[in-house]
Amino acid sequence: MPTYRDEAVVLRTHKLGEADRIVTLLSRQHGKIRAVAKGVRRTASRFGSRLEPFMVADLQLYEGRTLDVITQAESLGAYGALIADDYASYTAANAMVETADRLTDAEASLQQYLLLVGALRSLSRREHPPTLTLDSYLLRALSLAGWAPSFQDCSRCGRPGPHDHIVVQLGGVVCPDCAPSGAPRVDPATIGLLGSLLTGDWASAEAADESTRSKANGVVSAYTQWHLERGLRSLQHVHHDTPTSAPAAGIDEKGRA
């Protein structure tokens, strides 16, 4: 059978039989892959922890009829244990890999792969607060998938901003003429933080206070849930350093005002 090599990050695993696992991967060149890691659950397995969630590895696989088979795995990014040591990082990482699983398919998506690997690396190094890292990842991943939000000009008519209404169903901020009746208003600090998370302006993002971060998180969660249509199960388990208030400005988790 044909063999191939690729770099991949482990999204999730499932037990198969007594000693094997089915591993779902997001790869650099082949998109999402489902493969079998034979004997990986045995103590003497040569794969060890290289095929656990959040790990990045250089893999050799051969093509199977329904599932490919992993024959070699060399670690490139041992992020799993470092992330698992911190509960907030662990819950954020779970939401990231679930999002990547939902947004990608068998077609290659180099940008999604690089974005996820970068976010997991950042979590493992504690570069930024986990919730901010997650919110930034979600906004960027959705943008790469074709759902880029607007936090400056009206997302419906393009009227130059700033605007203070946000409607997730319409793609972000909207001007007064486009805003539906009862559309929630969001304060400028929260909209500014959302823009910083989307562009990766970490100095501005980390300067935001806890209340502003909580409101921005509510908007990001609503935007993500709306566009993915089915809710992310892992989002409800994301740990916040401080109690999270109700979703921002009257927006519920399904994007309704």
Automatic annotation (TrEMBL):
Domain of life (superkingdom): Bacteria
InterPro entries: ARFGAP/RecO, DNA_rep/recomb_RecO_N, NA-bd_OB-fold, RecO, RecO_C
GO biological processes: DNA recombination; double-strand break repair
Domain DNA replication/recombination mediator RecO N-terminal per the UniProt entry, residue ranges: 1-78
UniProt keyword NAD, yes or no: no
GO cellular component: bacterial nucleoid
UniProt key word DNA damage: yes
Gene3D superfamilies, alphabetized: Nucleic acid-binding proteins, Recombination protein O, C-terminal domain
Start and end residues of each stretch annotated as Disordered: 237-257
Keyword terms: DNA damage, DNA recombination, DNA repair
HAMAP family associated with the record: RecO
Function: Involved in DNA repair and RecF pathway recombination.
Family classification: Belongs to the RecO family.
Name this protein carries in UniProt: DNA repair protein RecO
Organism: Leifsonia aquatica
Gene assigned in the entry: recO
